[in-house]
Write a structure and sequence with these properties.
This protein has 445 residues and is α/β, with parallel strands linked by helices. Among the domains are: 55 residues, no CATH class; 248 residues, Aspartate Aminotransferase, domain 2. 36% of the residues lie in helices and 15% in strands. Strands 4-10-9-8-7-5-6 form a seven-stranded mixed beta sheet, sandwiched between helices. β1 and β2 form a beta hairpin. The chain starts with 10 loop residues before the first helix and ends with a helix.
């Protein structure tokens, strides 16, 4: 084994060495001649000092083009719940590969995955599989509009429901553009989006039940779509009574309540955030942790709503329920359904959250750790927990970027936006090594 392949956990922090990413830098420059911006997803272009080329991933680690073995808290941006390259998932997919890859028909493995899905998820009387959360969100909104005969949809500042024009509004607005908290201005998330694509979107601040109820009472809303816990931009739980109130008012006004559980689904509990909080939506969208890294998403909910897909609502996709992905889905759900893996992750995540608070307190640096043990958020420069997107903007994001960059140079790969994803492979030894590195980096700050 070459010397550069021997970099491992804790070495950079304990010996005062900074890792080198020269080979990734060179590969990224070469990629930029062929891939627009050097990447195939904009969210991969943000890491400092530059995007990494990952050559291998196993358990709680990734190995990059320079041979650096990094403790990984990206988790593939959330899908990796069992650990990278889990052998059980690999065997299930390999077995299916010997049978059929794609045949434009139903498969027994899809039916079994759907059965377990509906058993696990409180709202799921029926389910349809997709490839991405973006697609599944669009399906949920189409169903809601068909069921109600209405067109307007309420979404919330800081919540993300995919990159398409119809929902990419106010997902990360600046205060200079967002207007008042009581009556936010919808802000397009990208150039190239026509104003007409937001004509049916009503933007509100999250976690404010009186404002939501007042808008719903007008009687023209087809659906309310929200992250049941705001985990894309941070990891913010709903205020006490907020989800219950939203459920009640949606029922009273005929609006469809949609939970976007792309991040929380199968990650925070076998039945997602709706199980944790005890509030059942009409429809819900899942992706990420559903198949431990394979491209699978789902829209699920009440039978009367979902059965519209069998009648007048078009839901299609050549690669929906692709058998290899269904093999990964079934194997993942079977491992997650009893909740024991969640309990193990929770024990270690709780320990990490408490240790982070202690480390920053000892340094005298204001910081808040919020969310779930399986997915939490660290904000620097604030003393109070965030309740909505505007609170998220109060944190010192430049300082956090310095922090996450220093972590990377010392062997820990953490998202620059402050969200940490844990998997079942993040055992106590991994947590110990992570905390050792974090302590060293915080001391240097």
């Amino acid at each position: 084994m070459s010397m550069r392949l021997q970099a491992s956990r804790g070495i950079a922090a304990t010996e005062g060495k900074r890792l080198s990413f020269a080979h990734s830098a060179s590969a990224f420059r070469a990629a930029s001649a062929y891939l627009a911006g050097g990447v195939s997803s904009n969210v991969r272009s943000t890491p400092a000092p530059h995007p990494l080329v990952i050559e291998k991933a196993e358990g709680a680690y990734v190995v990059d083009a320079d041979g650096n073995r990094l403790i990984d808290y990206y988790g593939g941006m959330g899908p990796i719940i069992l650990g990278h390259n889990d052998a059980r998932i690999g065997r299930a997919v390999s077995d299916q590969l010997d049978k059929v890859v794609l045949a434009a028909g139903q498969s027994a493995i899809e039916i079994e995955a759907a059965r377990i899905f509906c058993k696990m998820v409180p709202c799921a009387e029926r389910v349809r599989f997709n490839i991405s959360g973006t697609e599944a969100d669009q399906a949920a909104l189409r169903i809601a509009r068909a069921a109600t005969g209405r067109t307007k949809v309420i979404k919330f500042e800081g919540h993300y429901h995919g990159w398409v024009d119809s929902v990419l509004w106010s997902n990360a607005p600046g205060l200079e553009d967002a207007g008042s908290a009581e009556n936010p201005t919808p802000v397009a998330g990208s150039l190239g989006m026509p104003a007409s694509s937001g004509a049916e979107i009503v933007v509100l601040p999250w976690n404010d039940l009186p404002l939501l109820e007042a808008r719903l009472r007008k009687g023209d809303i087809a659906a309310v779509i929200m992250e049941a816990a705001m985990c894309n931009a941070a990891a913010i739980k709903p205020r006490e009574g907020y989800l219950e109130g939203a459920r009640r008012v949606c029922s009273e006004t005929g609006a469809i309540l949609i939970f976007d559980e792309v991040i929380t689904g199968f990650r925070v509990a076998p039945g997602g955030a709706q199980q944790v909080f005890g509030v059942t939506p009409d429809l819900a969208v899942f992706a990420k942790a559903i198949a431990n890294g394979f491209p699978v998403a789902a829209v699920a909910g009440r039978a009367d709503l979902m059965e519209l897909c069998a009648k007048s609502v078009l839901h299609a996709g050549t690669y929906n329920a692709q058998p290899l992905c269904m093999a990964a889905t079934l194997a993942t759900l079977q491992l997650l359904q009893d909740g024991s893996l969640h309990d193990g992750i929770a024990a270690r995540g709780t320990r990490m959250m408490a240790a982070f608070t202690e480390i920053f307190d000892e340094k005298g640096m204001p910081a808040r750790v919020t969310g779930f043990p399986q997915v939490f958020h660290l904000a620097l420069g604030v003393s109070e927990p965030a309740r909505d997107w505007r609170d998220v903007l109060k944190s010192d994001r430049q300082l956090y970027r310095r922090f996450s960059t220093e972590l990377l140079f010392n062997g820990v790969r953490a998202l620059e936006r402050g969200v940490w994803f844990l998997s079942a492979a993040h055992d106590h030894k991994v947590v110990d090594d992570t905390l050792e590195i974090v302590r060293g980096v915080v001391k240097s700050l």
